[in-house]
Design a protein that fits this description.
single chain, 408 residues, mainly alpha, 79% helix
Length: 408
């Protein structure tokens, strides 16, 4: 094997490792806090309103900081930005339990979420650049790793905290180590900047592409359809994660069983996040997958309304399948643009706009639940949002790119 081939193979393996480790670290900061939120509130003397703000901060930060990612990637290279993102996640996770007050805790959380936001946006860019012929399989791998990290943090944080002496500070800080490990594979790419990054990347194995002008992304119908689809599926996911266990508990399901049902919903994303992107890239139109996932969601909501306790396990599985619209959305980001520049712009726009769209949903569900005294109106809202999600998903799934729209 020539020296050049060996270098390309080594760099490619390093990128795969980096993608997988980074994906595992994109949600534990959120789900580990959810597992210990009551202890954190007591420890910091946090009010209920501030605790509610904490649950709304992640999508807000994803929207605000994700916009910066394409510009940073053009200047420093996407690998270097993801490396810095993983470092920010690790530093924020290590600092926030020991800041001593609510303001410091929020500031350190924002640092962590900033690292997650830029990495969220740049994962599809790196996949498109290094693996242009394997967008589906690579998106599936990192979506599966992301789902695994999400589930693991939710399941492991409490027992690990108990094993570490019962301190919630230790339980939250331990996730900093995992993020620190994810920094390592990206270090060789830190020195690649701007045009140098493009040249180095071409030598080491990613797809070669001609320099591309920026696309007027806000004038693209595809971009808007994908952004709204991303926002509505994120709304459904946050509502499910935040409220599904309570729906079951109010229906008479024991608290421990309700927690298991939520875990089942989250774990469904692990295998399906690998399968769905691979299937999506083989279809000329991703609309049929959008419809299938939407029908599962509608069936799950109908079950929650008519027989929440009687068919609880079936509804948990159906909603877990429906929530796999997330890896489908990420796959379509890579498919709806031809160039690395286009993918970066589309990823930033779709995710930032989408996360902004998702912010009111969980809060509105809580308001409807509180004022109506039951789950009829909230479930009707969830069902109503699934219809436009299916419509815009079908529009986003059409076989065209943002560059094609710009050319026309």
């Amino acid at each position: 094997m020539s020296t050049g081939s060996a270098t390309r193979a080594w760099a490619t393996r390093l990128v795969v490792i980096g993608i997988m480790l980074s994906a595992v670290n994109l949600r534990p900061a959120i789900t580990s806090l959810g597992a210990l939120l009551e202890e954190v509130r007591d420890g910091l003397g946090m009010s209920g309103s501030v605790a509610g703000l904490l649950t709304s901060v992640p999508p807000l930060c994803f929207a605000l900081f994700g916009v910066m990612a394409p510009r940073l990637a053009r200047r420093f290279g996407p690998g270097a930005v993801v490396c810095a993102g993983m470092a920010a996640i690790s530093a924020g996770l290590l600092i926030r339990p020991y800041t001593g007050g609510t303001a410091g805790f929020l500031a350190a959380s924002a640092l962590t979420l900033m690292g997650i936001a830029v990495s969220n946006v740049l994962m599809p860019v790196i996949v498109k650049r290094w693996f242009p012929d394997r967008v589906g399989s690579m998106t599936g791998l990192y979506s599966m790793a992301l789902a695994l990290g999400t589930s693991a943090a939710a399941a492991v944080t409490v027992p690990m905290t108990q094993a570490l002496g019962g301190s919630w500070r230790s339980g939250l800080a331990m996730w900093a180590l995992l993020a620190a490990v994810a920094v390592v594979p990206w270090i060789p790419f830190v020195r690649e900047r701007g045009s140098t990054a493009q040249a180095a990347a071409s030598r080491e194995g990613p797809a070669r592409e001609e320099p591309a002008a920026a696309v007027r992304i806000t004038r693209s119908r595809i971009a808007w359809a994908l952004a709204v689809f991303f926002g509505l599926q994120a709304t459904a996911a946050y509502i499910t994660m935040g409220w599904m266990a309570q729906i079951f508990r109010d229906a008479g399901v024991p608290a421990s069983t309700a927690g298991l049902l939520l875990a089942v919903t989250m774990v469904m994303g692990v295998p399906l996040a690998f399968v769905i992107p691979r299937v999506a890239t083989r279809l000329p139109h991703q609309g049929p997958i959008v419809i299938a996932l939407g029908v599962c969601g509608l069936a799950g909501y109908a079950g929650l309304y008519f027989a929440p306790a009687g068919g609880a396990w079936a509804w948990a599985v159906l909603l877990g399948v429906s929530n796999c619209a997330f890896p489908l959305a990420l796959t379509m980001v890579g498919m709806r643009a031809r160039t690395g520049t286009g993918v970066a712009q589309l990823s930033a726009f779709a995710q930032s706009t989408g996360y902004l769209i998702s912010i009111p949903g969980p809060l509105l569900v809580g308001v409807l639940y509180q004022h109506s005294g039951g789950w009829g109106l909230p479930i009707a809202l969830m069902t109503g949002l699934m219809i436009p999600q299916m419509v815009v998903g079908v529009l986003a799934g059409r076989s065209r790119t943002v560059e094609d729209e710009a050319a026309r």
